[in-house]
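Q: Got a minute? One more chain.
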Amino acid sequence: MTIAEFDILNNHIGYGNPNAEIVFMGLEEACDHNTIPANYNYRFNYAGTEIDGLYDLRDFHADSGLFELNKWWTTNQNQSTWNIITFLISNLGNLNLNTPIQRKTNYRNSLGRHDQRTCLLEYYPLPRPGHGDWNNINTVHAGILNIPGLFNTKDEYFDHCRNRNPDRIRRIRNIINGANSKYIFLHGVLETVENTTVVREDIIDILPDDWEDHSVLIENIGTRHFYIYSNNDKVIITSYFLSTRHFDLDALRDLTDLILN
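A: Always. Here it is, folded:
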């Protein structure tokens, strides 16, 4: 990958409305091991509408011509993370999206759209099959993480994104701290260190300056913990990855009840 190609990926921070009321941020987008070249090439050449580094989720995926991206619109397969996100949105807005089919219809038509109320952000710019795969130097990522002049290893890549990539961090922070954002979910940013639940160090820079003064660790929702920050009509929820392995629907109902009450 060249520096120019990396800059294209780095300019893309997510999907949806930059003035969204409900914001979700993960660590990075997913992609399949076997289709990384095609996935990246599609992104290098994407000519769809962009607003402040945000694409339209449906337009980007449904029109891609890549099965791993458009299958959520062309088949009956369910995107599990989007299903969970839509469930949370439904509970927060009293939308009564009670079945997987209702939630799928909703995320196909409304989630991450430029003219809707949601925004999906990614902290890191490079898609990957799994966040843990960055530790496996024998995967194709060994080549992806070799960009002369920028970085050559996983640790150098993470350091570059946090400490030498101020424009991406600034744009993400502006959306999270924006005047219209009300509910912000940062998932995948909690980790366990010496049996203690902590926020990933690389994420701290995007949190509000008074984060530590206005956040509370909530335990025993599902099998995982949350930090919840609340101040000035804004709620930020930090969690482990949003997946059915960690949170069933009852746990997510408990979470939204806690947020609303």
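A: The first helix runs from residue 3 to 11.
Q: Perfect, thanks.
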